[in-house]
Amino acid sequence: MATFKRILLKLSGESLMGEQGYGIDVKRLNEYAAQIKEAAAMGVQIGIVIGGGNIFRGLSGAGKGFDRVKGDQMGMCATVINSLALSSALDAAGVKNRVLTAIRMEPIGEFYTKWKAIEALERGEIVIMSGGTGNPYFTTDTGSSLRAVEIEADVMMKGTRVDGVYTADPEKDPSAVKFHDISFDEVYNRGLKVMDLTATAMCKENNLPIYVFNMDVYGNLKRVLEGEEIGTLVHNA
What we know:
single chain; alpha/beta; Carbamate kinase; 8 helices; 37% helix; globular
């Protein structure tokens, strides 16, 4: 029995690279689709937001001379590419899904509205929400927070390459200690990089907990939904 009825699953674009270092690793993509299929079979309603960092990241593009607004728009398009790839993998796995976009681009995807997303979720479809917020200067973390609040999700599941929130980056500092749970205020006070400040503030203000876990280990999504404590819960104190 799943511990949550409706979730927003935030997936990392970088994780889609797998071992390649760029683009989309088909093996990783299919593993994600299989994990999402398992979660859907538990009766969980699943909304998904996926980043675009494996293709283009607006902020780093701005550092290389790209106009920030155009760079962010390129990043939004990258999230649509990743969303279509995941949708295709879910189709192949026999999972009903639809892609909604924050910017009008029919027939690639339907234009996002809260009500369209919730109706699809209640029909048992996986809803992939792409294009960020549709505006520059906002990350996909903020897009995830916004969509999670809009669709009235019980929790945001942040699937990353790390198995939770640590006192420091465990990939760089072997002495870093993992938190079982932590408050939004402590995340802020410690300067921890769970999500950017805009996204964290939105979750805090709307009482939306975040569960950070390692999505790259096959089966972890199901384990989290079954209540296994393998990551870190970020919540209001």
